[in-house]
From TrEMBL:
Residues 195-277 form the Bacteriophage phiJL001 Gp84 C-terminal domain. It comes from the Bacteria. This is DUF2163 domain-containing protein. The lineage of its organism: Bacteria, Pseudomonadati, Pseudomonadota, Alphaproteobacteria, Rhodobacterales. InterPro entries: Phage_phiJL001_Gp84, Phage_phiJL001_Gp84_C. It comes from Sulfitobacter faviae. Pfam families: Phage_BR0599, Phage_phiJL001_Gp84_N.
Length: 295
């Protein structure tokens, strides 16, 4: 019973207990969802844990090493709880999860059993299955610099340090025409050269898909219109009249960093690394051996 409140430990030691599980899911946008497998709602920490969601959980496996703590939450989709469209839109991806073992007769007696995040989330008919990952999961990510010719930074991050709010690098517009939530067209788009937003992103600022975004695959003129094509459709309804924000893209080349963004000081690539031809070069008795092709 190490680590348990004395009253809670005494309750468990009785043999006949009034225990249940409670789960709290906090999404990146701040929305909070709370559930319990008890047959009545419970309240603690200022949160009401609902009992009518059909949520349940499998046994929790935890380890002391860096192996991923894992369990699964199983539940039913409900319009006023976890909705199918929000799962499809990825709004629960990476959400924080906390799980308690609670004495439902006295919710002040409880133990936090799990804290982590949602990993893979699958939908099947009117139900869902969510993989839960422990706090050690981020420690399994590889860290360190990658030695490559292109820049390894993400445009606008702490390594790049470029201010994307600078004039000319972000544009907020109202959608004129959209097809399949992937092809956006405007009749007039002055001030930006062709391809300016390629490899950038499109953020939806309002409507049912507010908060969702997509990476720009192509930015090109066609039939007197400016077309912004995304790699994948926005996973939500985007209609004409919706405000979106376009952010300039970067192809990670040193020339682009210098000429388009004037940010060469923070370039994180190694443009002078020798190529594979140079590494495979063999000694020659005549002329210079630079590793290039012979003509």
């Amino acid at each position: 019973m190490a680590g348990l409140d004395r009253g809670f430990a005494a309750h468990i030691a009785q043999g006949v207990t009034t225990l249940c599980h409670c789960w709290q899911v906090t999404r990146a946008d701040g929305a909070v969802f709370a559930f319990t497998d008890h047959d009545m709602p419970l309240v603690f920490n200022g949160v009401t844990f609902r009992a009518d969601t059909g949520l349940s959980a499998r046994a929790l496996a935890q380890a002391s090493g860096l192996a991923v703590d894992n369990t699964e939450a199983l539940g039913a989709l409900s319009d006023d709880a976890i909705r199918e469209d929000e799962i499809e839109q990825g709004r629960f991806d990476g959400a924080e999860v906390q799980a308690w073992l609670v004495n439902w007769a006295d919710p002040a007696q409880r133990q936090l059993q799990f804290r982590g995040s949602i990993g893979e989330l699958h939908r099947a008919g009117a139900s869902f299955r969510a993989e839960l990952r422990g706090l050690t999961e981020p420690l399994n990510r590889p860290l360190g610099r990658v030695y490559q010719k292109p820049c390894s930074a993400v445009l606008g991050d702490s390594d790049c340090r470029f201010d994307l709010t600078a004039p000319g690098y972000a544009e907020t517009r109202v959608v004129e025409t959209v097809a399949e939530a992937q092809y956006f067209r405007w009749t007039a788009f002055p001030g930006y050269e062709e391809g300016w937003f390629a490899r950038g992103r499109l953020d939806v600022l309002e409507g049912p898909a507010a908060g969702l975004w997509g990476m720009v695959k192509r930015d090109y003129p066609e039939g007197g219109q400016r077309v912004i094509e995304l790699w994948q459709p926005i996973r939500g309804a985007v209609a004409a009249g919706t405000r979106v924000r376009l952010t300039a893209g970067c192809d990670k080349r040193m020339e682009t960093c210098r000429l388009k963004f004037n940010n060469l000081l923070n370039f994180r690539g190694f443009p002078d690394l020798p190529g594979e031809d140079w590494m495979m070069a063999v000694p020659r008795s005549d002329g210079a051996n630079g590793g290039g092709s012979r003509r």
